[in-house]
Design goal:
Strand content of chain B: 15-25%
CATH superfamily of chain B: Vaccinia Virus protein VP39
Shape of chain A: elongated
GO cellular component, one term (chain B): mitochondrion
Structural class of chain B: alpha/beta
Distance between the termini of chain B: 80 Å
Strand order of the largest sheet of chain B: 3-2-1-4-5-7-6
GO cellular component, one term (chain A): mitochondrion
Structural class of chain A: mainly alpha
Organism (chain A): Macrolepiota fuliginosa MF-IS2
Number of helices of chain B: 12
Helix content of chain A: 55-70%
Oligomer: heterodimer
Number of strands of chain B: 7
Shape of chain B: globular
Low-confidence stretches of chain B: 5-23
Protein name (chain A): IMS import disulfide relay-system CHCH-CHCH-like Cx9C domain-containing protein
CATH architecture of chain B: 3-Layer(aba) Sandwich
CATH class of chain B: Alpha Beta
InterPro entries (chain A): NDUFAF8
Distance between the termini of chain A: 35 Å
Largest interface: A-B, 30 and 32 residues
Chain lengths: 64, 330
């Protein structure tokens, strides 16, 4: 079973944000995700702070 | 500290102790089941989901329930018995009852706590006679007299019941001797990907976790629960439905439209944006498929139990065997 493909529906702020996290900033998201996945059995607060900062920066510039 | 002063303080502290404003606070003076789910919030979520776009939005996300109802019907058809009336407990809009054929069951009584969900689909979509009864699954015996039913089925609603042992006892009580209970519920590893992604994101971003996915009934516990409720001739099996989604956002949106939003008592009303973005990234890296989609696992526990009756086959007493196993095996 597969739900429908990602549609570029940017009507609501949440949809816009969702699009940014999955499509526009996918590279930064992947870097952050890999950082967590590399050490997911021992996650601490701010373990991947730098990776997330880049991801968040991309989101901020895309959404605003 | 005097007693009167204590009495003055305690109501205040109780107020801080209560988890949710929308459900009645747990009573500290009576012995009762522990409240895990906010039943009132759950009913409201289902109402809202079923009313959106005149029910269209809710019909779009029927895919999981329809699939499970279909698999449950296979088990129902394996039972070589025909019924006059069955009870569909926690029926939703009638995913299971819609599949009933008149020669197998003549009438279905659908019970659900959310009226909008219960009345979402018109009667002409059913092949058998139906009756819709609004009421709480946790209080079955208030609607149905004991020893009155031939069969009770429940398709994907028991995972929101606080007192599962109590609900099963009520189902057994409502059944006639030799009556059938057939149920399907989410349990085990259901939505473990979403659970872990949110937990990892919360720990890394905020330094703590809070409940976002319900605690699930373990598969191993279900046969114990059925046995404890007094059912015999138990059959329990598990099955998985895996659904692919483009991303965590579509998954969470669909869960909302299904009326399956978080209803754990003491839940946080919202998740921080950063945490959600982090969870989206983690979900994809940790669990994602090769084609870029993400999987969501729904694990379903099917259970069959019968109310005891003298006519049922029973195991022989110990030591009554006439054939020596050694002779058979040699």
């Amino acid at each position: 079973m597969n739900a429908s493909k990602i549609v570029k529906d940017t009507h609501t702020p949440l949809k816009k944000f969702a699009y940014a996290t999955t499509v526009t900033c996918s590279t930064q998201a992947s870097t952050y995700g890999k950082c967590i996945a590399a050490n997911y059995t021992d996650v601490r607060k701010d373990m991947c702070k730098d990776e997330f900062a880049k991801f968040a920066e991309c989101l901020r510039t895309t959404v605003s | 500290m005097s007693l009167s002063r204590l009495a003055r303080i305690s109501p205040l502290t109780r107020r801080f102790a209560s988890h949710s404003a929308s459900s009645p606070p747990p009573s500290f003076n009576t012995v009762g089941p522990y409240q895990v789910f906010d039943r009132n919030a759950k009913r409201m979520q289902k109402e809202r989901a079923a009313l959106r776009n005149g029910g269209e939005q809710s019909r779009l996300v029927d895919y999981v329930r329809d699939e499970v109802a279909d698999r449950m019907m296979e088990r129902f058809l394996d039972i070589k018995r025909n019924f006059n009336t069955i009870i569909d407990l926690g029926s939703g809009p009638g995913h299971f009852s819609k599949l009933l054929e008149p020669d197998k069951a003549k009438k279905s009584i659908m019970i659900d706590s959310s009226p909008a969900t219960l009345h979402r689909d018109p009667a002409d979509e059913f092949e058998v006679e139906i009756e819709r009864l609004g009421g709480d699954e946790e209080n079955l015996l208030q609607m149905i007299p004991p020893d009155s039913q031939e069969a009770v089925v429940s398709c994907l609603s028991l995972h929101w019941v606080n007192d599962l042992p109590g609900a099963l006892v009520q189902i057994k009580e409502a059944l006639q001797p030799d009556g059938l209970f057939l149920g399907a519920m989410f349990g085990g590893d259901t939505l473990f990907e979403l659970r872990t992604a949110l937990q990892l994101a919360e720990v890394e971003r905020e330094g703590g976790i809070s409940p976002h996915i319900s605690p699930m009934t373990d598969t191993r516990d279900v046969s114990n629960l059925l046995g404890r409720a007094g059912f015999t001739l138990l059959t329990v099996d598990i099955d998985e439905v895996k659904v692919g989604y483009p991303s965590i956002w579509e998954l969470m949106e669909d869960l909302g439209h299904m009326g399956e939003r978080n209803a754990v008592v003491g839940r946080r009303p919202l998740i921080h944006r950063d945490t959600l973005a982090a969870a989206a990234a983690i979900y994809k890296e940790l669990h994602g498929n090769e084609d870029g989609t993400i999987p969501a696992t729904f694990q379903i526990i099917y259970m069959i139990g019968w109310k005891p009756a003298p006519s049922q086959p029973k195991p022989l007493d110990r030591g009554t065997g006439k054939v020596n196993l050694k002779d058979v095996l040699d």
